[in-house]
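Question (not urgent): is this output format expected?
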Amino acid sequence: MTDEASGASAPHAPAVDGTVALYRGATLFDGTGRPARRSTSIVVDGQVIRAVGDDATIAAELPADAQVFDLEGRFVVPGLVDAHQHLATPPDRPVAEAVLRRLVYSGVTAIRDMADDLRQVGDLARAALVGEIPSPDIRYAALMAGPGFFDDPRTHQVSQGETPGAVPWMQAITKDTDLRMAVALARGTHASAIKVYADLDHTTVAAITAEAHRQGIPVWAHATVFPASPGQIVAAGADSVSHVTLLAFEGTDEPLTSYKHKPRVAYERFAAGDDPRVEELFALMRRRGTVLDATAGMWASEALAGEGPEDAARAAANTELAAVLTAQAHRAGVDIATGTDYETDPKELFPALYEELSFLVRRCGMSPEQVLRSATLIGARSAGAEDVMGSVEAGKLANFVVLEDDPLLDIEHLRSVTLTVKRGRRFHRREFDGTASRAEQSTQVPSPEGEKPGATHRGEETR
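Got this back:
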């Protein structure tokens, strides 16, 4: 081809290699487990962190043409990860883009999309990666479930124009399915994982997991698949399990027949937070390194409030169950990721992830430091991306968040976000809040390519 078009514009593209930026003077919580460090500098080259260290040491080795950003008095944490999102059930591109925009301007630099219409999600992921839209990185799953699941209306929403259960991103699995081909088809959607969802026995879950791992792709599973139990799913080798309330079906005396016919949850069994059968499950998860995508605060949200006293009572019971089981998992040493599975009202300034983090502190016995680790390094681990994100370290992607207030003192201080750096690109919170005029934004928020070498940007430039 000799007359190729340039394609759509990418105003939010990652920073270009060779463009060096220094962020200095911050108090850094780097996500590695080290204590927060004062007077710390981060050197970014394009999309990648080149160095992290003491201000004085870094300054002595800084290239003369580096752009300098003064973060004196501010706090830096790794980019946040929402481990449980759904962007396209059903597909609605403007709504999805609005959700993604709010996420990235709130410090979220990556999400796990836990099965949707991957025709749209795949394009959203591409647009996010190249910078056509402001968005976190999107790592997404292709779903597998038993045939009985595919009269669920959601499966029709994500398969419009095709047959539910017979598309590569959402497959019905039977005893006759060629799992090698099924996993290969799922991988062909560019999915980051297989999601095991419903109506599969433990033998089938184990076979799917083994084949997925053989082909080099992880498995993200519902915590109970019906009839496969939580213990069977963990024993099968699932890399993460979602929804802590589903763990209540471990050791139940009633049969786990199908997704649509769940037995009653014995809430009273878990009230003391020391159920021995769940404790054994958590020990197994800890030994295997299985991540718990708890979605602990989901039932406390307005999104799941329902209508009437019966719905309210169910939500309240599940909220208490989620708090007790998540606290027990935390005490047992299980790695907990921070997923949501809902979003706050579009008029809200901040996403649902902030509510999840607050719930983990207020109701689940986790400290702000532990919750930040869950929202960063463990979130990256849940997405299979710990090698490139989740902590502020040399060699990893330049994904971090600048805050006015110390989140280790109060997790609500995440709401003081002034700047998100994602793949080296700066997303100033003021652009989202509208606290600067469009004219001011166009002059005060230059692209990395257009900023003057060696220029020093005071802290107000990150507001």
